[in-house]
């Protein structure tokens, strides 16, 4: 708790960087949100996804998605406004192919997906707030939600700073990061509540310190094991998986920071101002 002001400064700097990047640079929205063209081709010879990506990059395409299907075909998604004819001509240099389908992803669908993505995040946060308010106290729920918003904003800001593509898979990974962050925070809160019953004469600040230290080994071991797996998938999982795992790598760092230094500290600082007798030695 004595280090919480340093943690506040680090968090504020990260949040300001994220908000600055989001405001001036924005997000690199994927085809799920911008619309575009969908091509499905079946090559006569074996052509890997890496070869298709390399060919499209050589043709000047910078925003696209490539994936294999269970039927042995290759799906290619191009951003709205990018010509499909050039891509189809270039693919012939890899192998003769059959064009299975060619479709356009319109703006109405992308607008609907964008709204659903926003609502999914808001519903998830609202559900967590209601549960924590019932399980603990409304003030504790407020601290957990602030820590959650802190984590998600920094992860989104990291996507903006690196200009990585944001699609529905990334939105799903953001929700997982939010759940992971809240899970760590709830473990700490649960220990604080338990110690409030067992150590009634202990100053609130010391009790929070004790509770965090009692759960610190669990928090660090869980975070490190998850980080090792996420980092391996980020480095060796290929472009599509790497883009999703980026949210986990950044989210684990900031989630661990917020669980240890931010969430409980916010509860203490707000509660000690509402009830000055809890301040003790701040």
Inertia-based shape: elongated
**CATH hierarchy class name of the largest domain:** Mainly Alpha
CATH fold title of the largest domain: Multidrug efflux transporter AcrB transmembrane fold
- Total helix count? 9
Flag low-confidence runs. Answer: none
Task: Give a brief outline of the structure.
With 282 residues, this protein is an alpha+beta fold. Helices cover 70% and strands 11% of the residues.
Tell me what the structure shows.
β3 and β4 form a beta hairpin. The chain is an alpha+beta fold. The termini are close together. The protein folds into two domains: 196 residues, Multidrug efflux transporter AcrB transmembrane fold; 70 residues, 2-Layer Sandwich (Alpha-Beta Plaits). It is elongated, with a radius of gyration of 23 Å. α7 packs parallel to α9. The protein contains nine helices and six strands. The strands form two sheets. A four-stranded antiparallel sheet has the order 3-4-2-5. Strands 1-6 form a two-stranded parallel sheet.
Record the SSE blueprint.
Layout: H1 4-24, E1 28-29, H2 31-34, E2 36-43, H3 49-58, E3 64-68, E4 74-79, H4 84-91, E5 97-105, H5 107-135, H6 138-162, E6 165-166, H7 168-198, H8 204-236, H9 238-274
Parallel strand pairs: 1-6
Antiparallel strand pairs: 2-4, 2-5, 3-4
Helix pairs in contact: 1-6, 1-9, 5-6, 5-7, 6-7, 6-9, 7-8, 7-9, 8-9
């Amino acid at each position: 708790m004595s280090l919480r002001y340093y943690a506040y400064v680090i968090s504020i700097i990260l949040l300001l960087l994220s908000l600055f990047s989001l405001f001036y640079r924005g997000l690199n929205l994927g085809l799920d949100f911008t619309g575009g063209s969908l091509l499905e081709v079946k090559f006569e010879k074996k052509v890997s996804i890496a070869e298709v990506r390399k060919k499209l990059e050589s043709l000047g395409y910078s925003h696209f998605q490539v994936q294999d299907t269970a039927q042995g075909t290759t799906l290619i998604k191009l951003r709205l406004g990018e010509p499909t004819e050039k891509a189809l001509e270039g693919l012939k240099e890899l192998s003769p192919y059959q064009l299975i389908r060619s479709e356009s992803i319109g703006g109405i669908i992308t607008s609907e997906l964008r709204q659903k993505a926003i609502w999914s995040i808001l519903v998830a946060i609202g559900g967590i707030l209601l549960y924590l308010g019932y399980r603990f106290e409304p003030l504790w729920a407020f601290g957990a939600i602030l820590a959650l918003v802190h984590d998600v904003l920094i992860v989104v800001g990291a996507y903006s700073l690196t200009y990585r593509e944001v699609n529905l898979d990334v939105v799903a990974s953001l929700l997982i990061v939010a759940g992971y962050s809240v899970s760590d925070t709830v473990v700490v809160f649960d220990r604080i509540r338990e110690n409030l019953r067992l150590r009634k004469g202990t100053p609130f600040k010391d009790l929070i310190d004790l509770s965090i230290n009692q759960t610190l080994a669990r928090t660090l071991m869980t975070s490190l094991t998850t980080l090792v797996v996420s980092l391996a998938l980020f480095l060796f999982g290929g472009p599509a998986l790497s883009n999703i795992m980026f949210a986990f790598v950044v989210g684990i760092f900031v989630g661990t920071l917020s669980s240890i230094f931010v969430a409980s500290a916010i509860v203490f600082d707000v509660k000690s101002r509402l009830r000055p007798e809890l301040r003790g030695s701040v």
